Amino acid sequence: MFSIENSVVKTLSESRIRVLAMKLQLPLLPLHFIRRESVMAKLDAHADHRFHVFEAASGYGKSLALAQWMHLKKQQKEVVAWLTLDPKENDALRFLTYLVCALHSADKKCVPLSLKALEQDESIEDIAHLLHQELAAINHIVHIALDDIHHINSAESLELLSQWIEYAGPNVKWYFTSQQTFPFPISRYIGQGVCSIYSEDDLKLSRDETLQWLSHTFKEPLEHSDVDAIFEQSAGWFTGLVLIKTLHDQKQQYWVKGDETIIESYFAEQWRPTISPDELEICQQLAILEKANGLYLNAVYERECSSEILASLSQKHLLVLRDKNANSWFYLHPLLRAYLISSMDGLAQTQNMERASEWLHQHQHHVEAVEMALKAGNKQQAAKLLQSTAESILEEQDIAQLLQWKKQLPDDVITASPRLVVIFSWTLALAQQFDDAERLMAQMDRFLLLDTSILPESVSGQLFAIRAYIARSRGKISNAIQLSKQALDKLDDRSYMAKTVTYFNLSNIYMTLNKLAEARQYNRLSFETARSVGSIHLEMLALHAQARIEQVKGNLYLAEKLLNEGLALAERLMNPQRAAAYGRLLIYKGYVVWLRNQPDEAEQLLLQGVDVSEHCHDSYIIMGYILLNNLARQRGQLEKAYGYLSRVEAILQYWSVPGFTYQPWLSTMRVNLLIDENKLDAAQANLKYLYDLLEQNEYALSPEHYPDLRGLVDVFYVRAKSISGQHKVALKLLDKKLDHGLPNQQGFALIFVYLMRALLRYQLGQEDNALQDFRKAITMAEKNFCIMPFIEYSQGMSALYNQLPTNIQQKEFIRTILSNIEVNDGGHHNQAFAQVRSIISQRELAVLKLIAEGLSNQEIAERLFISLHTVKTHARRINSKLGVKSRTQAIIKAREVGVI
After folding, report:
1. Which domains does the chain have, with CATH numbers?
2. Burial of residue 532, with CB atoms counted within 10 A of its CB: 0-12 exposed, 13-18 middle, 19 or more buried
3. Could you tell me how far CA 10 lies from the centroid of its own chain?
4. Least confident range of 49-58, 124-133, 878-887
5. What are φ and ψ of residue 81, in 5° steps?
């Protein structure tokens, strides 16, 4: 039919039609290909859509992601057709021929009439009509992928394509990849809910996916900081990763300046030829401003038509990316920006930057206005802008940004202004750099010596509020309450940020004191203040604080509802990644869904949250990593769990956060891991260190972000004593907590207390009391489906589950728990003891006791006067009889049933 090479598709070997086989071949997945889980999830969620468009710049992995989905469909025994297009398919007959052949090669029964019409040289109209009919009649799912659809621009080929899409039956699923905007309008299909678009934002690699690629590419493991640098610059662009890897191979560097030969060559050859002079000028201006819309560019550079050029660049997918949070704003990919900046004269841009700062300030982009003034080198202007917009900048609590500005502004500029002293004292306090904050506040004495009237009451109130926050962080609770109330007496409505943070501080203090009614009262005041000034950031923080209160009460569903409200507010922010409140909401939602035993969703939320917290320099990051540690521990990944603790410790040390704010928390979590490893002596030593801290300060174990750390320490103390066989000592502590602290104990904490006491009472033979405690814990947890405590403390609970009435065992809550834990049928504790004791010989019992004492195999052999081989044989038999895999598990199991 047309000139073609010798390569022939096998399914067409008996036909006289000759086509290139490789154009119809579904691409093979590389050995170490990156699994695009988020893309697969979106495709799966929109599986009912009729067609899917992958529309992004070259190098974002469109074809590979689509090929992964097609292989998945093929594994599911569904029909998959693939066609890689090139400009020759602008010939409508060739396009039609290749599509028919692709479908035929995928399923011989799919389009037999169309293929026959092609062989008989019928008219293109007749063949197209037959294809429409056959596509409409398909009664099974067929997936058709047209790769590189941007090559098609002829009116005739596009008309055929639009007809196929319009009239194909519901069982035909179309997929397209394109480096440009889809060649004909599809907004109607999107509006009908039958079409999905996958842009650069959907296709960019996540940090985990980037790390996956780096781990296969680099011979040596990379430092976290190196991975962060590579991820920040590549920004999910696969080609960017390859460029950075090549640069590292050549120059042993990860950070791209933009003037390197490999970078210049790539953009000069692959990018520059595709744009016009006007488009190049816009891109250069965008590189200087970092992010802009058309009005902004027009004002700064005194030009017109910027919006139209930006839209054109976006449609061409030339690494000019649309801001998903502000649709009319655009920015360049970091590597493209570095390339353009390196080729421009920075000194000539100062006047434009100053104009940009003024425009940003006038249009309420206060953070960006200060940043632009500093880039222009006008530090006095930056200081002036900071003073005039302090509250709005501080409310975002992007501490990283504020700390960076503090470094850029000279000390004499800061200390010359009471307003700047307040701003950066807050910055240092929120960054947990308390000593530095107090030293800076001491600079106010200079103004007081000159004239006390210089400082208005509101500034004095700000200082009281900062000192109150520092006092609470240091565990000086009474002092913090007094300072907070003095602050509120002096702060006026214009100091809304300081007033709201003071309400947060008081709410947190009363949570620490287990006075939740008072905590909720101050939380309500923080809401009212935030809403009265229309602050989304502060309202998000208030929702987070309320969710914490409800979670402590045991109201998990209400807590999650509040967190979702806060996350919905975040969608209204231009850049939630710079909002500390957004990170906190993500992390705490991760905590709540983990408590309901949804670990995969929890992990995703936590990883998102810690990224935001790290970007914002928010000390709340410790909460995220502690929870990731718990997830890893629950999965038996102890090394990974320790790694998370070390990671956050390194971050907080790098941020100069004082150890007293986080070391007790990390020590507490390490206690739990040490118990898991049966390193009870080390665990007890850590517990002694923690209880010694309480002797010095009763609130030493009440950090701002987890006020009930003391309760967690008690739980781990009970666990350590129980595993070491000291059941009565452990039970005594729980009885004391319930007898003396019942009015202050909240719902969530009580679940753990009753659950652990049930286990201890059962082990001590107090079976009726044990079952009573167990049922109390179930009743308290069932309402909000709080499953995690029952999974965490499942060992030794089998008999209690077996003794529950049948109607309770059949409840969804209990069935869900039982589906996540191992329950043996041994039943009674005494039965379990008898069962184990009957199968373990006297000699094996002697070996087991020495193993529990921590003796090595060689030491056991010497103690019992037997060979090393015999000790190992006994150890293997003990593990087999107890149904465990390690010495540690054998010790725990033996203590659980009471044989040692």
Report:
1. 10-203 (3.40.50.300), 660-818 (1.25.40.10), 829-897 (1.10.10.10)
2. exposed
3. 47
4. 878-887
5. -115, 140
CA dist 815 and 685 (Å) reads: 39
First to last CA, the chain: 86
Report DSSP letters for 228-269, one per residue.
Answer: HHHHHHHTT-HHHHHHHHHHHHHHS--S--S-SHHHHHHHHH
* Long-range contacts of 118-127, Cβ-Cβ distance < 8 Å, separation of 24 or more: 118/1, 118/17, 119/15, 119/16, 119/17, 121/1, 124/92, 124/93, 124/96, 127/96, 127/100
* Beta-carbon count within 10 A of 279 CB: 17
Question: What is the strand order of the sheet 79-84 is part of?
Answer: 79-84, 142-147, 172-178, 51-55, 195-198
Rg (Cα) of the chain, in Å, rounded? 33
d(CA 389, CA 773): 56
620, 809 Cβ separation under 8 angstroms: no
pTM beyond 0.85: the answer is no
Q: What is the mean pLDDT of residues 281-300?
A: 94
The position carrying tokens 């970092």 is 290
Are residues 638 and 601 in contact, defined by beta-carbon separation less than 8 angstroms? no
> How many other β-carbons are positioned within 10 Å of the β-carbon of residue 198?
23
Spatial CA neighbour of 287 closest among 269, 276, 300: 300
Residue 700 to residues 502, 657, 663, 665, Cα–Cα distance (Å) = 21, 16, 11, 10
| Partner residues linked to 147 by β-bridges | 84
Q: Which of 412-421, 571-580, 728-737 is least confident?
A: 728-737
Backbone φ and ψ for 142, nearest 5 degrees, come out as: -130, 125
In 3-state terms the chain splits into helix, strand, coil percentages (rounded to 5) of 70, 5, 25
Length of the chain: 900
Q: Spell out the long-range contacts of 789-792 with Cβ–Cβ below 8 A and sequence spacing 24 or more.
A: 789/595, 789/751, 789/752, 789/755, 790/755, 790/817, 790/821, 791/597, 791/634, 791/817, 791/820, 791/821, 792/634
Backbone angles phi, psi at 57, to 5 degrees: -65, 160
The two three-digit tokens of residue 754, written as one number: 């009753």
Query: How many Å apart are CA 756 and CA 472, to the nearest integer?
Result: 31
Estimate the crossing angle of helix 224-234 against helix 238-251, to 10 degrees. 130
C-beta of residue 338 within 8 angstroms of C-beta of residue 262: no
Sheet containing 330-332: give its strands across: 291-292, 330-332, 320-322
Closest CA to 298 of 328, 276, 332, 270: 328
| pLDDT reading at 561 higher than 90 | yes
Can you state the angle between helices 621-634 and 599-616, rounded to 10 degrees? 150
pLDDT of residue 830: 47
Number of H helices, E strands in the chain: 50, 8
CA distance 317 to 182: 11
Tokens coding 89: 């398919």
Q: Report the distance separating Cα 383 and Cα 415, nearest Å.
A: 11
